[in-house]
Amino acid sequence: MELRCGGVGSQAVGRRMDGDSRDGGGGCKDAGSEDYENLPTSASLSTHMTAGAMAGILEHSVMYPVDSVKTRMQSLNPDPKAQYTSVYGALKKIVRTEGFWRPLRGLNVMMMGAGPAHALYFACYENMKRTLNAVFHHQGNSHLANGIAGSMATLLHDAVMNPAEVVKQRMQMYDSPHRSALRCVWTVWRTEGLGAFYRSYTTQLTMNIPFQSIHFITYEFLQEQVNPHRGYNPQSHIISGGLAGALAAAATTPLDVCKTLLNTQENMALNLANISGRLSGMANAFRTVYQLNGLPGYFKGMQARVIYQMPSTAISWSVYEFFKYFLTKHKLENRAPY
């Protein structure tokens, strides 16, 4: 079976696998079109989880150096040696002064968290979306259902991902004392307790629930515009994913700045704000950011965040949709009689 069906612009086509009941007219009426017609209307749970895990690992791996820059640019009181004006300039300076591999420190723990987190994330989203669409909008696609499904998926995703976020952000900071992920985990556990790994969880949810709601609603809306038959179309997944990620990232930057402060417990910033001990709680984080940097403080690192999220979500959706399509076809081929 071929994964693609020839046509104008060599656009790929595939059977809808998201539960939407709209007809998929158009396309080529050849052997490839017969494959298109014979694919099942929904992918299995294992397919969603496998495709989601692959998407999460690739997304975070490819974009990790930019994520390292974003973390540093959100620092409220950076060391004079770690002050940056652009993403490219920051990467260049980090590599030149700290070594070629420095922007990748913490990547291993991020990959370990991203795989299972994204597996649960996409599997929950797809199943919740299908269920809620049946309740809210008997035919077609409900944006309310997509937003709620994205929010529910975020609860599972962040529960797995939050400890990995804490470790990787502490390793990304300038002059970090942590040289390995295991050493960082042990140090945080010993000095701050298990709760340190979830200190920013409520803030993470407060940020990610609106982020994912905007993200999924925008993605599904754009898919309706550029890919109305909802076939496997890599171009549409990249465009929709990238634009959805950029919009959601820009809108939720203030919450991300607060999350970074809670995760890193930036000593110089806390000392300037006359805070002894550990900072906890979203409200306290918001007050501290405003106290130190005023309103502009809430938008520190927004450029890096958008530059990071736009290709990240484009990669995530294109990889996810590819593996969902490929694995579903593969299972169908294995069941076909010869």
UniProtKB/TrEMBL annotation:
UniProt keyword annotation of Metal-binding present: no
Main localisation: mitochondrion
Keywords, alphabetical: Ion transport, Iron, Iron transport, Membrane, Mitochondrion, Mitochondrion inner membrane, Repeat, Transmembrane, Transmembrane helix, Transport
Organism of origin: Ursus americanus
Classification via PANTHER family: MITOFERRIN-1, MITOFERRIN-1-RELATED
Name of the protein: Mitoferrin-1
KW Plastid (keyword) present: no
Record InterPro entries: MCP_dom_sf, MCP_transmembrane
General function of this protein: Mitochondrial iron transporter that specifically mediates iron uptake in developing erythroid cells, thereby playing an essential role in heme biosynthesis.
Disordered: annotated segments: 1-36
